[in-house]
Backbone:
């Protein structure tokens, strides 16, 4: 008799469910999601929200650097290829102006517990640019000694000089983009990066004292096979990452036209995507990594695994985060801020962002004001995305509401319960191991806005 191991048996059952669950749903990096942002929320609203911000707890900062040395055809980030340093320098000067403008609107001097440089490619900044940026941040805010200071880096552009300069400004965590190391996949996506480049970048960061290293991998890329995913993992694991993110390729060519350069016929189908992600997860579990939500893996001693255990993990626009701050101030083109009253996004167009900041205006393009119901539903969705379970009574109590208000959403879970994707005990909703790949579908039941927007999101698996 041919007996499957438990992991393979689970995968077969997940594959059987796929036809029902291979749909589109938000990644729930916020609730409401960015699709609900409207231009009715603009600079005036953001200004008032900043003026009302309580500064009794530290805030977090995100700065967006929308520049790259290359264009990877799968890329879903807001970025462009730049070869001229002046353009970046001017942008950093405007970032300085924006940071100062926002800091002056706050009712006092804020403490900062976390700084995240995202992109694009933050290591396109020169050491001088970094000095301007961090000089401003430290002048306008009290950056706490224990602050996490992190950056997303392109290994192919990293230099030892950059690593030392950034470490000198307090960088203590870095995410390196890897995606897939197979030459066939790299050729299909226009990103050429031998393992030695990644290993060299990791060594430069460690030599500079940046010890917490995350690696970003992807599945679902053109020409990618399970063997490619495992082979990439094997190589990356030799670098002893603190965390690995394994993102499912989000194919949204209607939003990112360069993704049309990829040959859709070469994209793995839903079943192949599911197998790639699940087999990779099995491999990482066997190496002792803790699986975090839908796409992260952390060593048990990493702060993300610790936060998962303590149930203090959160979601923000970068994905899973250990950041507990109630407010996130976003700087740069397309950056999103989260304030107690609502979410606001800067102009995604770099030109429009530059125009606003150079005229001394906040560059808010759109946003959404949170209702009490949004906060309630948002926490239910966040707990499901992070903990894979939620006690609706406990969340309701925190929001002075009743779990019964979500009766419609709970009723919508019935087919997921029948499939074994969700278990329910009273007001406790739990995603089963079988259901983990489909957690976004369960979250979507609690999303009061989804119907009109469903098709604009990426696929669930
Ligand atoms: C800002 S980029 C990484 C830093 C750097 N620019 C690099 O490419 O090495 C952040 C990560 O987002 C992920 N990513 C980009 N486009 C994606 C897409 N369409 N679907 C899923 N993940 C994507 C990749 O893993 C990428 O490393
Ligand atoms: S993956 Fe990184 S380097 Fe490639 S285009 Fe996107 S942001 Fe730029």
Residues:
């Amino acid at each position: 008799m041919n007996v499957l191991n438990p992991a393979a048996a689970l995968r077969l059952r997940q594959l059987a469910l796929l036809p029902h669950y291979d749909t589109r749903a938000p990644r729930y990096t916020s609730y409401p999601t960015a699709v609900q942002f409207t231009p009715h929320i603009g600079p005036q609203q953001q200004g008032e929200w900043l003026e009302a911000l309580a500064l009794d707890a530290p805030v977090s900062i995100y700065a967006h650097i929308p520049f790259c040395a290359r264009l990877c055809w799968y890329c879903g980030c807001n970025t462009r290829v730049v070869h001229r340093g002046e353009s970046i320098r001017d942008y950093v000067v405007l970032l300085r102006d924006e940071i100062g403008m926002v800091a002056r609107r706050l009712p006092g001097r804020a403490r900062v517990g976390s700084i995240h440089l995202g992109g694009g490619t933050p290591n396109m900044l020169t050491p001088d640019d970094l000095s301007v940026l961090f000089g401003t941040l430290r002048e306008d805010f009290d950056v706490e000694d224990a602050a996490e200071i992190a950056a997303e880096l392109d290994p192919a552009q990293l230099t030892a000089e950059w690593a030392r300069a950034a470490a000198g400004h307090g960088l203590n965590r870095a995410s390196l983009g890897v995606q897939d190391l197979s030459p066939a996949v790299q050729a299909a996506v226009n990103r050429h990066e031998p393992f030695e480049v990644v290993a060299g970048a990791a060594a430069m960061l460690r030599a500079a004292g940046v010890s917490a290293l995350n690696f970003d991998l992807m599945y679902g890329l053109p020409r990618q096979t399970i063997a490619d995913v495992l082979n990439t993992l094997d190589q990356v694991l030799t670098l002893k990452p603190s965390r690995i993110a394994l993102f499912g390729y989000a194919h949204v060519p209607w939003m990112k036209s360069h993704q049309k350069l990829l040959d859709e016929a070469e994209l793995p189908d839903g079943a192949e995507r599911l197998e790639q992600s699940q087999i990779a997860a099995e491999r990482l579990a066997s190496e002792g990594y803790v699986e975090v939500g839908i796409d992260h893996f952390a060593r048990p001693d990493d702060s993300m695994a610790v936060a998962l255990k303590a149930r203090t993990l959160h979601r923000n626009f970068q994905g899973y985060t250990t950041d507990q701050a109630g407010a996130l101030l976003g700087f740069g083109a397309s950056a999103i801020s989260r304030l107690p009253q609502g979410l606001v996004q800067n102009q995604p167009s770099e030109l429009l962002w530059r125009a606003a900041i150079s005229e001394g205006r906040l560059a808010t393009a759109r946003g959404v004001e949170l209702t009490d119901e949004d906060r309630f539903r948002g926490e239910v969705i966040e707990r499901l995305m992070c903990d894979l379970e939620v006690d609706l009574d406990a969340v309701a109590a925190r929001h002075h509401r009743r779990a019964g208000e979500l009766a419609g959403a709970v009723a919508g879970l019935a087919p997921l319960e029948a499939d074994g994707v969700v278990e329910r005990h009273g007001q406790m909703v739990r995603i089963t191991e079988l259901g983990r790949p489909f957690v976004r579908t369960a979250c979507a039941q609690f999303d009061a806005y989804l119907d009109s927007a469903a098709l604009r999101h990426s696929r669930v698996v």
